[in-house]
Amino acid sequence: YHASQDSELSLQVGDTVHILEMHEGWYRGYCLRNKSKKGIFPATYIHLKEAKLESGGQDETVIPGEVSLVQELSTTLREWAIIWHRLYLVSIERLAKDR
Length: 99
Description:
The chain has one helix at residues 68-98, and strands spanning 17-23, 26-31, 34-42, 51-56, 59-64. It is an alpha+beta fold. Keywords: SH3 domain.
């Protein structure tokens, strides 16, 4: 999901988000890769998973309740999303040069 306003949160395939609120098909929360940026995002863009949250002082650790195969698949999809995005940008540049 690509945020179009400052109040929204951009998401990438495989991101883990902490949901703070839910309202009419939208969630408000933050990505664990950048806890300082909070925002809203459509509920349809994420899949809820079981997880345990362990607190150790100021640190929080999310422990997914999924099997290792699912974790491996998520990692692979995340990596391929980056690769396909780069390939797309290169092809757009080539098209622009050919015109």
